Task: inverse folding
């Protein structure tokens, strides 16, 4: 479940919040769909670095290539050359459910008689264990232990039963719960669908000759020369084929609950949601934080790169000098994985180095996007002091992360979240800062576009109910999640009532 799948072989999580996955799909019969997908995946690479994969539909069948590693490591020119077709999907993974290996990489294939489908998923399904067991009892084989393969197999199972792929998708949506943005192809058509709360992002775009693309973020549209059309709506199923684009309701939309951590950290700053770039959102968060927790310092610096827009906003709001005080080694992966605390600390030092020329003799204030375990903050505060800073103040441009995520983000369990275990003053002492402050939830909400959000990691209010059996594993004793809509738990008894 929300345990740290990315480190399963090593036993411990690295720093706090980690990426999700990136998904992309294209329907463009007269273009090089595999190369378009390749470029889009490179734009989405920040969302997952465990594995990458592309599936292409060539009118007759579906071909897939996937492997562990970055997009550039998995695909050589000749691989793309060999994958010609009219429709394609791609995926880059940071695992949240199931093991880390090749079998878990996406897209996942599923055969329905002689029709092959390939599915790519961003998100986590909270009830996949039960569904997987039911499918296994029904004789359905599995290659991996991931939630995403359960969705692929369910769609195969129900499509077989109903003879219609869209009915198969709809039936599957009725059974799965959690966060999902999914793209799927068969040999001649592209499908895209999204969970009814819209927890995970998915946007629709158009190429200049009217062909269609879908992607996790608008930065992938920009890179392939597509223009943004609209979001895939919560609960919607889109089908794109020679017959054009067909939209239908897979499930009635529920209360919109977009992941607010896309705004805080996950999405690229140049991506846009609800008309506002994530750069601007983060800049505003920094300015709001400056109003809530100002400080008298000589220099504001960011914890690069994800803290940069907020640090700029913080400095601008108070009219303080802003500079580069930490240099980031860009060849250290975003998700540094290490088995012990001392190796994690070494990982931070490998990634971030202080600029003594800039910070020595100054009162420094550092802005990061978030503090999760506190590993990064503790290290960089010490680095600043060693580099000669006379005062070191720390600010988090997001509220305190107190609750684990179950919908597609790889958070630590609650006992590993520093804010679940210590007061702000205790954290300040632990990281060794002269002052520490977090943006308030209210302040955060004033910076993001006006829509519905999931913000469970800050508030413990979960839009998709978390069943009781997970509590013991993931919450501190005495803590329980507040399920916002407890009546929305689906019946996963299997097979479902109708076989229409
Ligand atoms: O309190 P912690 O547990 O250290 O977690 C918080 C840090 O984790 C993330 O950075 P990360 O180094 O993962 O990636 P980034 O380089 O993209 O910021 C985030 O931007 C914070 O810097
Ligand atoms: N980060 C994600 O969105 C992961 C997708 C899926 N749960 C997997 O582990 O493969
Ligand atoms: S719990 Fe936090 S990280 Fe998870 S979906 Fe909700 S807002 Fe996003
Ligand atoms: Mg960081």
Result:
């Amino acid at each position: 479940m929300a345990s740290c799948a990315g480190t399963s072989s090593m036993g411990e999580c690295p720093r706090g919040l980690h990426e999700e996955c990136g998904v992309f799909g294209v329907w463009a019969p007269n273009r090089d769909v595999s190369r378009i997908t390749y470029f889009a995946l490179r734009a989405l690479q920040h969302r997952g670095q465990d594995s990458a994969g592309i599936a292409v539909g060539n009118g007759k069948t579906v071909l897939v290539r996937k492997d562990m590693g970055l997009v550039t490591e998995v695909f050589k020119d000749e691989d793309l050359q060999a994958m010609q077709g009219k429709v394609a999907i791609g995926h880059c993974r940071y695992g949240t459910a199931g093991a880390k290996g090749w079998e878990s990489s996406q897209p996942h294939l599923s055969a329905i008689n002689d029709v092959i489908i390939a599915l790519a998923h961003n998100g986590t399904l909270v009830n996949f264990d039960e569904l997987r067991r039911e499918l296994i009892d029904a004789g359905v084989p599995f290659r991996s232990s991931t939630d995403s393969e359960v969705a692929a197999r369910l769609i195969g199972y129900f499509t077989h039963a109903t003879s219609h792929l869209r009915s198969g998708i709809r039936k599957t949506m009725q059974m799965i719960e959690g966060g999902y943005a999914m793209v799927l192809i068969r040999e001649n058509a592209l499908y895209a669908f999204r969970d009814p709360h819209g927890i995970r992002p998915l946007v629709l775009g158009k190429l200049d000759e009217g062909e269609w693309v879908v992607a996790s973020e608008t930065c992938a549209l920009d890179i392939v020369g597509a223009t943004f059309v609209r979001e895939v709506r919560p609960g919607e199923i889109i089908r794109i084929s020679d017959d054009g684009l067909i939209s239908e309701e897979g499930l009635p939309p529920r209360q919109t609950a977009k992941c607010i951590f896309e705004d805080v950290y996950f999405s690229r700053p140049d991506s846009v949601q609800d008309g506002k770039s994530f750069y601007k959102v983060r800049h505003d968060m920094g300015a709001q934080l400056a109003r809530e927790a100002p400080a008298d310092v000589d220099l504001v610096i960011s914890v690069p790169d994800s803290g940069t827009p907020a640090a700029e906003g913080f400095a601008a709001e108070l009219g303080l000098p802003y500079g580069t005080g930490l240099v980031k080694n860009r060849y250290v992966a975003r998700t540094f994985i290490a088995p012990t605390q001392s190796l994690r600390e070494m990982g931070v030092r490998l990634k971030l180095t202080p600029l003594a020329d800039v910070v020595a003799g100054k009162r420094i204030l550092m802005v990061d996007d978030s503090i999760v375990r506190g590993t990064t903050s503790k290290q960089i505060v010490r680095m600043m002091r060693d580099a000669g800073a006379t005062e070191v103040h720390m600010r988090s441009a997001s509220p305190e992360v107190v609750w684990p995520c179950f919908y597609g983000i790889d958070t630590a369990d609650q006992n590993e979240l520093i804010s679940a275990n210590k007061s702000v003053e205790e954290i300040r002492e632990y990281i060794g800062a002269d002052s520490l402050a977090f943006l308030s939830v209210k302040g955060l909400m004033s910076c993001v576009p006006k829509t519905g959000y999931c913000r469970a990691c800050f508030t413990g209010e979960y839009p998709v109910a978390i069943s009781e059996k997970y509590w013991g594993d993931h919450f501190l004793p005495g803590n329980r999640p507040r399920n916002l809509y407890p009546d929305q738990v689906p019946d996963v008894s299997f097979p479902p009532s109708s076989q229409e």
Observations:
- Residues 272 and 381 are 32 Å apart (CA to CA).
